[in-house]
Design a protein that fits this description.
The protein has a domain at 271-476. It is built from 23 helices and two strands. The protein has helices spanning 3-8, 16-32, 41-62, 78-97, 99-102, 108-127, 131-140, 143-149, 155-186, 191-199, 203-221, 229-236, 239-245, 248-264, 272-291, 297-317, 325-349, 362-365, 367-381, 387-401, 405-429, 444-461, 463-466, and strands at residues 67-69, 74-76.
Amino acid sequence: MTGMGMAMNENPAALLPELLLLGGAVVGLLLCSWLPRHRQRLVRLLAAAAAVAGLVATAVAAAGPDRVVFGTSYAVDTLTHATRAIVLVAVLVALALSVDGTAGHRRETEFVVLLQLGSLGTILLGGANDLLLLFAAFLLASIPFYALAGWNQQSLGVEAALKYYLTGAFLGVTMLTGTVILYGVGRTTAYGTLREGLAAAPAVAVGVGLVALLAGVLFKIGAVPAHFWVPDVTDGTPAPVAAIVTTIPKIGGLVAAYRLLLVAVPPEAVDWPLLLAVLAAASMTLGNLAAFFQTSVQRLLAYSTVSQVGYLLMAVAVAGRAELAQPALLFYLAAYAITNLGAFAVVAELPHARTLDDHRGLARRHPGLAVALAVCLFGLIGTPPTGVFVGKLTVFTAALDGGFAWLAVLAIVNTVASVFYYLRWIAPAFRRGEATVLQPAGGWSAAVAYAAAIVAVLLGVLGGVVLPLLSGPAAG
């Protein structure tokens, strides 16, 4: 592309949702310098307004043609629009979910700003069309969440933040090494032209570079073998923080992996579909096995997220090989995000109920919460008519169409097996008990749980309408 052409597509308006999120974070940080502690809720309202405005801008942009901007570094297409929408909705849910636990806290503004900055990095991951931007987005989607993990400065939170940071630093350096190798053999960092360079490069070099690059992405989404931070961070942080770090980064990370492999890496150079299929199988299986005998609700949800990533990676494994791969990935991400946040909302509403047995008598004490919990947990299993059921069904179909029948069978077996540990949480909630630790935190988290359960079911009912909207070629 000529210099004139590159200058012509440097259009900041194309990044309006991202700029709104950034503006909300920067202005909120400035407001914090003079707002009294009891008025920091204005920063939260500003963040919510930025997210709503970003959703409107996303809807307007989605009606226009696909394009790449700022040279060829950032793609504005169906993948990016969906990433924006899912992340911005998740931000709104997280803002509401965290009210009871952070309102009036002396670091309330920092919580909101870190959430916005990490979410901005997540969106940039989904739209990155260049290796350098991909790594920059990885950093922006990581560093704020490291700080968020230690936000409350309690001993477990600080320990979790340190583990999160050290794992991310090591795998971030590994990712940078992979970026350098792929640039060295492909002679470019832009996805579109990188594909041609990698096709002619030595297969061993491409394989090593790709595996190293994917290490950072696997860390970001919490997939095996880069999942070791997930249980400790999830169990050692407050429920709102755990909800954020186990949900939002996965959205951008999975879309980034899908775009990178589809656009930039030819399967003839390295058999990445088989690599992703093996990682998917390992994640769903090890996540389920580790969740079987957990007694901590947050630790159980941590391993649940690892297994869910395994199902999502199935869609990435068949990128370009199955027509349903992209809509399956995006729909499943949307359904998973709202369902997982709903489950964490119940945990946030009952901060003293840390174990499965602590929820004994929940149905008698708080029947609405018990129903919301059951809907979200059955949703994570993939029970109709929830959105995750439609997502799983579409992903399994895509895997069959893409030639991975064995992976689809393994996923079905894992889905059936997961019923066991989800029921270990649901069953005590509907039994008689003293309910001595079921004091609610406030009400905001409960409202989020009810809304998430309703949306999870609506997504399942409207799946046939939503799925066709998520199809479309990746801009390159």
